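Hi P.,

Sorry for the delay on this. The queue was packed all week, but I finally got your sequence through. Input first:
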Amino acid sequence: MATTGHGPRGPLAGVRVVELAGIGPGPFAAMLLADLGADVVRVDRPGGAGLGIDPAYDLTNRNKRSVLVDLKAEGGADTVLDLVRRADVLIEGYRPGVAERLGVGPAACLEHNPQLVYGRMTGWGQDGPLAERAGHDIAYIALTGTLSMIGAPGEPPTVPANLVGDYAGGSLYLVIGVLAALQHARTPGGAGQVVDAAIVDGAAHLATMIHGMLAAGSWQDRRGSNLLDGGCPFYGTYETADGLHMAVGPLEQRFYEQFVTLLGIADEAPDRNDPGRWEELRTVVADRFRTRTRTEWTEVFEGTDACVAPVLSLREAPRHPHLAARSTYVEHGGLIQPAPAPRFSATPASVRSGPALPGADTEDVATDWGVPGLSTTGKETTG
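Then the structure:
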């Protein structure tokens, strides 16, 4: 397990980001930018967000700095606009219209800084019939059809935590949009603009390949009936003798031949090319996996191309030899956490600091960014 400290900043060193504090995909997107070296200043509100974990353990606020500003108080918006004048990017995750009412909407910010990239993170988007409605990850992926694909046939859809909507369809698309807009703003004649990142748009976009397969007739629009959604007996998970699981995915014929040979069912496995016998094949595979423990099966498939892996828990994953060798997880301040990704040969990224505590960096940011009024605001809001 690698231990980090004051490491390299990454390829976004020199980029300044203002993050208006929120929860979920907005903070994660800002963390990605911070991981890659941007100087991210999180504008926290006095009293906190009202929802979330102990700030000392909120890893989505690592590599950032925090200041306290009450946007509803007199002068609060002006203080944020002073930061905006010196920033390259702003990220907010309010409902449509809230930032405008607080005096820090796109028009006000771009007036003060025409080169600013204004990133907006919402579930439904800035317009449309549902734009004003509350929602969470599960509703967004439900509406796009994404949730309908996940789970076993005849059972309710399986909730994939909040990874598919909030973070894949939301945070990652916001970061892509922000970086693309930042590139445009820095080209000759370029200017700042608004990036409208809606989770429904991103979650729908993630399924582009599936829509192509659906149109071609190679994907059935029902859960657990296809090659990649658990419907296929050689692409799924199986319980072992100790109640744990192995993940199986030998889609190619040459890998599948290794799989059935090592599993010990080469002579009895039904034809995998006959979907009518898939349930029979699934039973044979399942019965065989239940004869040994996860550890024993891991040893059987170790070092092969059978495309089989143990299903590890969150606490187990950092100890896997491959992930340990790559330092996929790191330890900082006593907290084990995923390392920044992806990796860069010339400008490596690192975990440089732990979760930013609300308001802890107000004085430093006031000095570094040249915003003397920020210091006064911080003292007033914490006094």
